[in-house]
Write a structure and sequence with these properties.
Elements (H helix, E strand, L loop, with lengths): L13 E7 L5 H34 L7 H5 L8 H6 L8 E6 L4 E7 L1 H22 L3 H11 L12 H5 L4 H17 L2 H5 L6 E4 L12 H4 L8
Antiparallel strand pairs: 1-3, 1-4, 2-3
Helix pairs in contact: 1-4, 1-7, 4-5
């Protein structure tokens, strides 16, 4: 099992390493990168909404309007394009390293909180997949149904502030489903096929591994004799 490192966010951001197999179709790889960016952007916007709600609650500036009108209904529904437009360029997800072999990994740079949402989602789901391997089909299906709600437990501890600002259970359920759950579930097919497995937060200053070229490629070819 991959260990989770304790990481502090630097001025560069934080790094998420996602492990997986490198043997994949190009279309699957491009789809994975697109859907991962969408999931990251959605988690980033969700975290921004929580920060804004916390600021309203802390300063006592809540004018008494429904929290959904203050925070998100102005740009609802949260399409990938709308969500991406709310992420500043400095905080956008960046691909900073790749090793394509089995197993290999992908390194991404971004803000710590949304990266942590991605990490926990992938790791929780990966653990449940391993549990199902040792159960009968009927037991595996029951476990899957029981654990579907756990896919969003990773952010439950963060939403209490929304209720303090007046958000109803219906508001919160809608926000989680439309903004977080739908984007995170788009990563499921890539995990099912092994393109990605689980992840960990790593030091963003890790030195890139140098690829040693074969000696024959480092030697100048002989001149042609005429």
């Amino acid at each position: 099992m991959v260990s989770t490192l304790t990481a502090t966010e630097t001025s560069q951001g934080s790094a998420l390493r996602i492990y997986g197999d490198g043997d994949a179709y190009v279309g699957d790889v491009s789809g994975f990168l697109r859907d991962l960016e969408y999931a990251y952007n959605s988690a980033y916007v969700f975290d921004s909404i929580l920060e804004e709600a916390e600021e309203l609650y802390r300063t006592g500036n809540n004018p008494g309007l429904p929290i959904r009108n203050l925070l998100w209904m102005a740009w609802w529904p949260p399409t990938p394009e709308k969500v991406a437009a709310m992420v500043p360029e400095a905080d956008r997800l960046r691909l900073i390293g790749v090793e394509l072999h089995s197993p290999g990994f992908w390194d991404f740079l971004g803000k710590l909180n949304p990266l942590e949402v991605l990490r926990q989602y992938l790791n929780d789901r990966h653990e449940r997949q391993k549990d199902r391997e040792f159960r009968s089909p009927a037991e595996a299906r029951k476990l899957e149904l029981e654990n579907q709600s756990l896919e969003l437990d990773i952010i439950e501890r963060k939403i209490g502030i929304l209720k303090q600002c007046g958000a109803t259970d219906k508001d919160i359920a809608l926000l989680k489903e439309q903004l977080l759950a739908q984007s995170l579930r788009q990563l499921n097919p890539y995990q099912n096929q092994g393109l990605i497995l689980e992840g960990e937060i790593v030091d963003p200053n890790i030195e890139k591994k140098k690829i040693a070229l074969p000696q024959r490629l480092l030697t100048s070819p002989p001149l042609l004799q005429v």
